TrEMBL record:
Keywords: Membrane, Transmembrane, Transmembrane helix. It comes from Draconibacterium orientale. Pfam families: YccF (PF03733). This is Membrane protein. The keyword Transmembrane applies.
Length: 122
C-alpha cells in the first residue's frame, strides 16, 4: 500500500515538490552561510519524493542551542511559508475521504518544514 501511495503522490505533484526542494537546496548551497539551510532543504526534498513509510524523529543526541538558533533563522527566512503551504494543501486534501492519506503526508512535511534542524527522517 505504501508503494501505491508513493506512486500516486509522485504522479500528482510529489515529483514537482521534490524538484523545487532540490533546486532551492542547490541555490542555498552556493554560499557558505546557506549550506546548513541547503542541507535541510535536501532533507525536505527526500521526504517529498517518497513520504509514505517514512517517519520523522528527533535526533538521539541533544543538538544544543545552535539547532534552536538555526530553527529560528529558518522560521524567519521561509520556513513558516513552507509550513503554511503544506498545511493549506493538507486541509484541501483532507476535505475528501480519498485525500486523507495525502493530507497526513502534507501535515508530516509541515512539521518538518517548520523546524528541520535536530530532526531526521527514518
Amino acid at each position: 500500500m505504501k508503494i501505491l501511495g508513493n506512486l500516486i503522490w509522485l504522479l500528482f505533484g510529489g515529483f514537482a515538490i521534490f524538484l523545487e526542494y532540490m533546486l532551492a537546496g542547490i541555490a542555498l548551497c552556493i554560499t557558505i552561510v546557506g549550506i546548513p539551510f541547503g542541507i535541510q532543504s535536501f532533507k525536505l526534498g527526500i521526504l517529498a519524493l517518497w513520504p509514505f513509510g517514512q517517519k520523522i524523529e528527533y535526533m538521539n543526541y541533544a543538538p544544543g542551542c545552535l539547532s534552536t538558533i538555526m530553527n529560528i533563522l529558518w522560521l524567519f527566512i521561509g520556513g513558516i511559508w513552507i509550513m503554511l503551504t503544506h498545511v493549506l494543501f493538507g486541509l484541501l486534501l483532507g476535505i475528501t475521504i480519498i485525500g486523507i492519506p495525502w493530507a497526513k503526508q502534507h501535515f508530516k512535511m509541515a512539521s518538518l518544514a517548520l523546524t528541520p534542524f535536530g530532526r531526521r527522517i527514518v
